[in-house]
Amino acid sequence: MKRLTALITTSCALALIVSGLLAFTGMQPAQAAKEPYVIGAVFDASGPAAPLGVPEQDTIKMLAKQLNALGGINGHPVRVVIYDNASDEAQSVMAVKKLIESDHVLAIIGPSQTGTTLAAAQTVGAAGVPMISCAAGIKIVSPVKPWIFKTAQSDVSAVARVIDYLRANRISKIAVISVANAFGDSGKAQLEAQGKAARIQIVAEESFGDKDTDMKAQLMRIRSRAPQAVVCWGTNPGPAIVAKNMQALGMKVPLIMSHGVANKKFIELAGNAANGVVFPTGKLNVAEALSNGDDQKKVLLLYAATFKREYNRDADGFGGYAYDAFQLIVQALKKVGPDRGKLRAELEKSRMVGVSGVFRFNAADHNGLGKDAFVMVKVINGKWIPVR
Amino acid sequence: MKQTPSINATLLIAVLSLAIILLLPHFVHDKYYLCVLSFVAIYTILVVGLNLLMGYAGQVSLGHAAFYAMGAYTSAILTTQYHLSSWLAMLIGVCLTAGIAYLVGVPCLRLRGHYLAMATLGFGWIVYIVLLHWDITGGTSGIQGMPNLSIGLPLLSNQAGHFHLAWSNLLVFDNDERHFYLTWAFALVILIISANVVSSRVGRALRALHGSELAAATLGINVARYKVQVFVLSAAYASIAGSLYAHTVHSISPSLFGFTFSVSLVVMVVVGGMASVWGALLGAFSMTMLVEWLRTIGQSVPSLREFDVIAHGIILMLVMIFMPSGLFVTIRDGFARLFRRRTPQPLPAPPAKEVALP
Amino acid sequence: MGLLPDIAQCLFSGLALGSIFAIVAVGFTIIFSSTEVVNFAQGEFVMLGAMLSYCLVSEPLKLPLLLAVPLAVAIALVVGMGLGWVLMRPLKKASPVSLIIITVGASMLLQGIASHLWGIDQVSLPEFTPHDPINLTLPFWMTHNHDAYPVTIQVQELWVMGLAALMVIGLTLFFRFTMMGKAMRAVAANRHGARLVGVNVSRLVMGAFALSAAMGAIAGAAVAPITSGQYSMGTMMGLKGFAAAIVGGLGSFPGSIIAGLFLGVLETFGARFLSSDYKDAFAFIILLVVLFVSPNGIPALLRRKAN
């Protein structure tokens, strides 16, 4: 019996090692992409950022399928290789390396978060592969890195919209509470800079961790400074808790948030504390309410409909970022063919009406979007109503 | 008594490893795997230190990522903001980390098994939270742009009438192959040093300590001093690994150095074998490859959401229950048992349960 | 005193938070006293209570909360017993290090399964008794301020504290008057001696795990409506509850409770008056200080001073 146990455990141990070696030798280098165009993607599809990565991944799969059904790009089928970095930066770097060196991709879409993007950016830049990120942080494209682009609207534009709203409503003293991550820090910095230019005074600045479950301490401090409005910059679930805490503390001042809460999840988490919250959102969420003259309306409705048909779920802004990245690459590939350097140059000149906005890239602007990519909305009874 | 590899065996393994490492890049078509193996090397350095601590000194550290972070951040800050030489920065990192480890170790190591685990856990979390919020560490976005490591020759250059010490770059470690050689050079050296430590007087003292602190003390071994020494050594290793990471990946941020990573290190130690230097290598290799394998599978079977976390958990539990001495020792003994039928085999003694001192 | 409403608010919220820490700490203590195992998966029972409740109230079962929560607690209890059973064999011969690692593995496993079954999103749970927050305005003679902010009390917070108190009372009665409770106290006092008088240790281990799991689950279901549930919510709860258990003296039932409440209040006050950035660090700093100064907890320190 002991020998049997020994045999079993030894075999298992060996199996573990051998499987490791097999992964090592078993991977054949992908056939050099002669016929099919290979596009790579890295998304944070598991782990904390999965709400961002999953719709992005699904969108890319859907688009690739549709494109191939229509004959691909100039007759070349498109093969998409998607890796999941599990919201981890080290894995992000590895995934990108694998795409570049094993799969020989022409371009990379993703990752989904600012942190994972910045980690991979160094590698991608050194290897000379164009990458279109779906993350929001301004640090990704400012200072401009030659090979890195992004489709997610910048927080610069989101903040600009918020500042416009504040001025339109004659609010000049605000408190800022942000989440302690790249997204929150970036937004806070923008609020400080643009607020100063617009003569809006920030009377209190607080932050909270992205796993925190109670923000009353910060809100109490804010309350004691008597701001005219509270601006909360973060992604779920923090802002929902901020909304609930504010309601619990009886704080009645207007609550303005970032585009990080432009999704149904926020409303679900915050319950009726979500009513009255104002934030900028990409136009996808209010597509039906747009005027027929709006450039983006057709694209938005088409995306929403096809996504719903394919996955039986509502499309959201995150998937939209991936949508735009894919279409940009396809558009560029159609013009210049499978060459990384030419792709990059073409991307830099691109113009496209997308889901996230109307893109106008140039050498100094690798995001290509402005304030007009956002509309301000208010949550009323679970629905998004545009406001001025 | 645990078996110790004799000096000859160590030398053999070392030479063999050197040969494998020198020749490997030529056989690997896919440069991506060189990158993976570079990570294995870095993790090996981390795991060897932790292995010495856990296997030989019997102390659990659930916050070792903190020392890894200290090395990485020191290198990053000193090279990007103060423009020091990368090697100097690495050295400073090691000294700083070792110093902090000493300060933390002296009070901590008076504690027993689970208390130390908790203390290191708490320490790890504190460091992580500080990294997130301190300006100097760049907060949540961390630090990017560290230069590559390079070897150069000093030369005097004459600029505008002043003599000036400059470095000419003979060899810059800037691509996957060179990263591979660089990281494995460090890993090998550290492995050999550790193997020597294990078979030296210090190592024997440590093993006695692990067997029973009480007995070791009666033999005149200064238990506290040895425990602290091992703790500091493992922290120094971690610091080196951190600096290497910083200079090969060029981007660091706090999320790399959290509790999850500390736990991954423990998994690697446990899987490889807690009382074996080469087990550290095996553990680092297997777990890294497992992640790669899961990544490959994950591509074709999308419904396996979060499977890597589940797999880590299951492996940890199964290994600790059924293979507590780890892969290396289990395989070694397994082979021994299969091939030697006649000789009565003393089973390797399971790790002794610590006598519950009142 | 302009700050009085804030102080009162912090005190109240701190006690609510501390109740959760206390329950987790008591869970640790029960398992540790009976088995000498530090159960790293303790926080996951809290998570299971919350997530299972959520699962049962949503599609497709849509059970009423009154049914869902006890059922969730029952399932968590079974999971706890499962963990106890898994640990039985290694308990006999493995080192404390190994046992710790096994429970760490169990914690990862539970988190992985939870995220696989219920996704990684945060989920919201309905309050036990939906009600507007109660606003208590402190009397003028205390605040000297007609416009002082009221202290806001969420009804769910009262549930949390109430359930925690009930559990503590229940436990005290359990330890005093039931066979198993007395057996646990015997084992805690002297393990081998307890065996000698016929205590069935394996049944005890299962019992200890079942009890801790159930308590953690109740706490989780109670706190989730306030904080929202997520597969990862167990980690911090477990760690801070753990810190409370150590500070109160691992193995001391009243110590765990007091330390838990104390850490909750400390964290809330620290967040409000010191720094909300570093608020998670407070519990760990106290943990380290206590470990360095008096590893057996504050009660031991007090006893030493008394002598």
Q: Main sheet of chain B: which strands, in order across?
A: 1-4
Radius of gyration of chain B: 21 Å
- Any low-confidence stretches of chain C, pLDDT <50, length ≥5? none
The count of β-strands of chain C is 2
Return the domain count of chain C: 1
In terms of quaternary structure, the protein is heterotrimer
Point out poorly predicted stretches of chain B.
354-358
Mean pLDDT of chain C: 87
Just give the CATH class of chain C: Mainly Alpha
Q: Note the gap between the termini of chain B.
A: 26 Å
Q: Helix count of chain C?
A: 13
N- and C-termini, Cα separation of chain C: 41 Å
Largest interface: A-B, 53 and 51 residues
Structural class by SSE content of chain C: mainly alpha
Topology (elements, then pairings):
The complex is a heterotrimer of chains A (388), B (358) and C (307).
Chain A: H1 2-26, E1 37-43, H2 50-69, E2 78-84, H3 89-102, E3 107-109, H4 114-127, E4 131-133, E5 148-150, H5 155-168, E6 173-179, H6 182-197, E7 201-208, H7 216-224, E8 229-233, H8 238-248, E9 255-257, H9 264-270, E10 278-282, H10 297-311, H11 317-336, H12 340-347, E11 351-353, E12 358-360, E13 374-380, E14 383-386
Parallel strand pairs in A: 1-2, 1-3, 3-4, 4-5, 6-7, 6-8, 8-9
Antiparallel strand pairs in A: 10-13, 11-12, 13-14
Helix pairs in contact in A: 2-11, 3-4, 5-6, 8-9, 11-12
Chain B: H1 7-27, H2 31-56, H3 65-80, H4 86-108, H5 113-133, E1 143-144, E2 150-159, E3 162-172, H6 176-199, H7 201-211, H8 213-218, H9 223-249, E4 251-252, H10 259-272, H11 277-300, H12 307-322, H13 326-339
Antiparallel strand pairs in B: 1-4, 2-3
Helix pairs in contact in B: 1-6, 2-6, 2-9, 2-10, 2-11, 3-4, 3-5, 3-9, 4-9, 6-7, 10-11, 10-12, 10-13, 11-13
Chain C: H1 4-35, H2 42-57, H3 65-93, H4 96-118, E1 134-136, H5 140-143, E2 151-153, H6 155-177, H7 179-189, H8 191-196, H9 201-227, H10 233-247, H11 253-274, H12 279-293, H13 298-306
Antiparallel strand pairs in C: 1-2
Helix pairs in contact in C: 1-6, 1-7, 1-9, 1-10, 1-11, 2-3, 2-4, 2-9, 2-10, 3-4, 3-9, 6-7, 6-9, 7-9, 10-11, 10-12, 11-12
